[in-house]
Write a structure and sequence with these properties.
The protein has helices at residues 7-20, 23-30, 34-43, 45-68, 70-84, 87-92, 95-134. It is mainly alpha-helical and 135 residues long. It has two domains: 1-68, Arc Repressor Mutant, subunit A; 86-134. α1 (7-20) packs across α4 (45-68) and α2 (23-30) packs across α3 (34-43). The longest helix has 40 residues, at 95-134.
């Protein structure tokens, strides 16, 4: 006969499911079947909704905090870029250090522009859709 899950175990399973969104992944973590995870989640749909709402609220809180620190972050980034661009520091740096710094900058810069391009494309698509709906 299979062991019964405690309320604490069930809540942990639900929390992990909300985080991972996969019955299989959660089942591997907890050493139970995916069917067991699915049953626990489906029987606690109200608790799952509360967890999802909490996750969304946490995300909003983090984004709001990050936005409130925008000036500080920009100041730190500016100082970091100034240090990376310092002639004396560059002379002392090894080629590996320089290429690592360049690679990181290029990756992050590219990622930012790709994200902006995607957002612009989505806005353009919505604009076209709105125009078609007006017709």
């Amino acid at each position: 006969m299979a062991a019964r899950l405690t309320d604490k175990q069930k809540k942990k399973i639900i929390a992990d499911y909300v985080q991972l969104g996969s019955y299989n992944a959660v089942s591997k973590i907890h050493g139970v079947s995916a069917t067991t995870v699915k049953n626990v989640v489906l029987k606690s749909s109200d608790f799952v909704k509360k967890c999802e709402q909490k996750k969304e609220q946490n995300t909003e809180d983090i984004l709001a905090y990050m936005e409130s620190k925008r000036n500080v972050v920009c100041e730190i980034l500016g100082k970091g870029l100034d240090v990376l661009n310092d002639e004396e520091k560059l002379k002392e740096a090894s080629p590996a250090q320089i290429t690592t710094a360049l690679g990181t900058l290029i990756d992050k810069w590219t990622e930012t522009f790709e994200r902006q391009d995607k957002q612009l494309t989505e806005v353009e698509d919505l604009t076209l859709l709105a125009e078609k709906l007006k017709e």
